[in-house]
Structures are given as C-alpha cells and as structure tokens.
User: Which sequence fits this backbone?
C-alpha cells in the first residue's frame, strides 16, 4: 500500500525544517569564522591603561584589512596585538570561561583574552623621547600634542617619576630607537599602563645586553613585532552610551619620517 503525496509531505515536514535549520547554522558559523579571520573581530578592554577614551570592559571592533598587502600600523593608530611576552598577568590573559562565551569567541562574536590594546607612538626607525621641556612625548624631533586623548597629568605626557609609589611631578626620562619590524606602543593612561615605555631597559642594561643574549631578548621585548598585530580599533560599540568611531589624532600627521 503506497503513501499518498500529502501524507508523505506531512511526515517529511519536520525533518526538512531540522535539516534547513542545521544548514543555516553551519553557514552562519562558517561566515562568522571568515569574517573573524579576515575582516572584523570583537575584543574588550581589560584594564584602565587606555582611559579616558576606552574603559574597562568596553567592547571594541577591530578591522584587519588596513594591514593587508604589507600594510603597516601608522603612528596614532589604536591597535590590538598578541602578548609579546609576559606583558599580561594571568587574569587579563584568561579566555572566556563560560561555554557559550567560548563558542562565540571562536567565531569572533565574543571578546577573547590574551591580547592588549595600545596606541602606536613609534614605528620602525623612529626615535621616541620622553620628554621635552613642556613634558611632551617627542617622535623624530617632533613634539606630540596629546591633550585631547590621554589621561590628564600634571606637567608630563609620559610616565612620571615616583618615589615609593608617590608621583614626584617630573617626567621619567628615556629615549628609544624602534628596531625594524617593531612598534613602540603606549597606553593613553600613561601612569597606569604596562606598555613599551614600562618595559624599556635602562641605559646600563642596554649596554650589558650587547654581550648578554638573554638580557638582549628581554630588552627587545619592549617593542611589539608587527607580526603580532591583529588589527586596528575602529569603533567602541558597547555599552551603547559609549558608542563612537575612533579616529587617528591629527598630531601624528606632523611627525617626520625617521
């Protein structure tokens, strides 16, 4: 006895819905993976190092095409990069713990750990100095006007001198030459950012590093390899009240080439 067409369609209906749903989910996941790998990825701000513009747990979008085809980060870009080596503590380095968070992170729909967010101050060949007589960071002899985006400080746009945890009001002086294939990055909250300036070796250490490979590697760790850069931060998307598009500050346009 054969099953008529209406009865057969009725039985196949639920199966067809399940199959179509599974196919749609697979396609959506594949597309999300492609977008995450090549185009856009979500991250979060893990610390206060980029205040006042980016605060703890702000959600940001990072675009990747700007650095395709030998494109390189520019001075003033806010970038996301992988830890160059022990810049992050265990908490900041931790990935999402929840099952849903881990799955969404895989496809770029949830922020992941193990990354840092900083602003590019110097690119390969640049000389970055802290600071001039007005307390400004100087790149290739050009002082930067950073008042519009860094945390307010008294008299210094770089890390300030401290004595037993108390700020003394003067700049903690240093000069750095950026090696090939590397970047010098800083947080906008200059006195609370474990960035390139924080990891710089002192002049005596740099001198000893010439004959000490282990020390040389540690001193080199102050500069971020361009190969570790994930992409450029283009928007702050959550919370909604913080939403804004990020732009490269105009002060960096005046910096001459090295």
Assistant:
């Amino acid at each position: 006895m054969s099953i008529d067409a209406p009865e057969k369609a009725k039985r196949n209906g639920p199966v067809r819905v399940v199959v179509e749903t599974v196919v749609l989910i697979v396609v959506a996941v594949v597309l999300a993976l492609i977008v995450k790998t090549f185009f856009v990825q979500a991250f979060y701000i893990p610390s206060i190092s980029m205040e006042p513009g980016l605060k703890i747990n702000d959600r940001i979008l990072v675009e990747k095409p700007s650095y395709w085809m030998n494109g390189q980060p520019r001075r003033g870009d806010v970038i996301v990069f992988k830890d160059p080596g022990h810049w992050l503590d265990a908490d900041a380095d931790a990935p999402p713990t929840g099952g849903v968070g881990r799955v969404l992170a895989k496809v770029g729909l949830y922020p992941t750990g193990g990354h840092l967010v900083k602003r590019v101050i110097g690119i390969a060949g640049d000389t970055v100095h802290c600071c001039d007589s007005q307390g400004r960071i100087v790149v290739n002899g050009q002082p930067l006007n950073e008042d519009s985006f860094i945390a307010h400080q008294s008299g210094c746009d770089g890390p300030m001198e401290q004595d037993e945890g108390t700020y003394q009001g003067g700049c903690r002086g240093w000069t750095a030459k950026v090696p090939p294939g590397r970047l010098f990055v800083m947080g906008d909250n200059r006195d609370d950012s474990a960035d390139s300036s924080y990891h710089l070796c002192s002049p005596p250490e740099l001198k000893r590093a010439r004959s000490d490979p282990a020390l040389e590697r540690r001193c080199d760790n102050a500069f971020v390899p361009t190969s570790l850069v994930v992409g450029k931060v283009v928007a702050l998307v959550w919370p909604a009240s913080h939403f804004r598009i990020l732009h490269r500050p105009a002060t960096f346009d005046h910096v001459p080439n090295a």
User: Anything to note?
Assistant: The first helix runs from residue 5 to 38.
